[in-house]
């Protein structure tokens, strides 16, 4: 089969562009097209539950509404993410914002109460509001646990659901997940501003987070699902938690990974998905696609194309 040269025209749609990528079928463009085709198949498969993992600053990087939309439309069953993305979702839910174009002199930014994440910025004033509001929510949850006789013990997944039920923001990932029975897991939750505030709250209040308790929920979800597809945006702990949980049943049935990391160091973040088959984290014969590139560019492209082509 020959390589077709790309033809770009004025006013072409995203799907027309991805079709050009598919016809070329090589290098990064071909990988993007194959990932988009696989995403269409995953969404169209009524027997497949989709697990999504988020690593890196996906909420500060502009993907909050995309993830919220997937939850609202019940495209995904499980979200596995970092504590940082949880924190930044709540930052916006409490009225804070993420900013751009504030410069790159980090000492001056620090003096002005501004934190930088590459080209994204946050203000310390917004974090002060976050800290105040999340402590109020922790207090409400702690009182509820006492009244229910739970002895102050709660799993991470249940804690995040309870937080989501107390948020007044229709675009919040946590709120939408709580309302639409989408399960959120954050195995590295303590390594975040959310975790820091949680630790501070527990110094004077009874609230015990049971991380192992999450495996009861997660293993049930894995075994209840006829098939599982995974969308892994970035690598790290969320990617591994997604794959390792499916080890219980021989691995995922399909998966898409978008990452900027390289495989040469042996890191999980840069490992091609095919490698997961050697660990039974992906099934033999599973359909897998790894795309090397910036998640904030590639995932919106393939999702926009996929939504144009699904069977709704």
From TrEMBL:
The family database entries (InterPro entries) matched by this protein are listed as: Deoxyhypusine_synthase (IPR002773), Deoxyhypusine_synthase_sf (IPR036982), DHS-like_NAD/FAD-binding_dom (IPR029035)
Query: What are the record's GO terms for cellular component?
Result: cytoplasm
Recorded GO MF terms: deoxyhypusine synthase activity
Write the signal peptide boundaries. none
Give the source's domain of life in one word. Archaea
- Please provide the record's keywords in A-Z order: Transferase
Q: Which Pfam families match?
A: DS
PANTHER family assigned: DEOXYHYPUSINE SYNTHASE, DEOXYHYPUSINE SYNTHASE-LIKE PROTEIN
Q: Which family does it belong to?
A: Belongs to the deoxyhypusine synthase family.
The name on file for this protein is Deoxyhypusine synthase
The organism named in the record is Methanobrevibacter olleyae
Q: What is the lineage of its organism?
A: Archaea, Methanobacteriati, Methanobacteriota, Methanomada group, Methanobacteria
């Amino acid at each position: 089969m020959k390589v077709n040269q790309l033809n770009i025209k004025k006013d072409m749609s995203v799907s027309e562009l991805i079709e050009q990528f598919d016809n070329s079928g090589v290098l990064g463009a071909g990988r993007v097209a194959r990932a988009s085709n696989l995403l269409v198949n995953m969404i169209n498969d009524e027997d497949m539950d989709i697990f999504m993992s988020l690593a890196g600053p996906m909420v500060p990087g502009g993907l909050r509404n995309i993830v919220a939309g997937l939850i609202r439309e019940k495209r995904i069953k499980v979200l596995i993410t970092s504590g940082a993305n949880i924190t930044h979702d709540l930052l916006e839910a409490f009225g804070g914002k993420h900013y751009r174009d504030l410069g790159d002199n980090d000492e001056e930014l620090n003096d002005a109460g501004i934190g930088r994440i590459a080209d994204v910025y946050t203000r310390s004033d917004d974090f002060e509001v976050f800290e105040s509001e999340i402590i109020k929510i922790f207090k409400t949850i702690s009182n509820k646990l006492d009244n229910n006789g739970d002895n102050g013990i709660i799993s991470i997944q249940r804690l995040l659901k309870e937080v989501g039920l107390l948020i007044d923001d229709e675009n919040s990932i946590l709120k939408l997940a709580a309302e639409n029975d989408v399960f959120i897991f954050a195995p590295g939750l303590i390594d975040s501003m959310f975790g820091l505030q949680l630790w501070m709250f527990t110094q004077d209040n009874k609230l015990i987070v049971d991380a192992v308790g999450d495996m009861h929920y997660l293993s049930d979800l894995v075994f209840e699902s006829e098939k599982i597809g995974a969308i892994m945006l970035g690598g790290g702990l969320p990617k591994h938690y997604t794959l390792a949980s499916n080890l219980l049943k021989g691995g995922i049935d399909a998966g898409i990974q978008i990452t900027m990391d390289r495989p040469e160091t042996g890191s999980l973040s840069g490992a091609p998905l095919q490698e997961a088959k050697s660990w039974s984290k992906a099934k033999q014969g599973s359909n897998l696609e790894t795309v090397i590139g910036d998640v904030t560019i590639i995932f919106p492209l393939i999702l926009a194309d996929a939504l144009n082509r699904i069977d709704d």
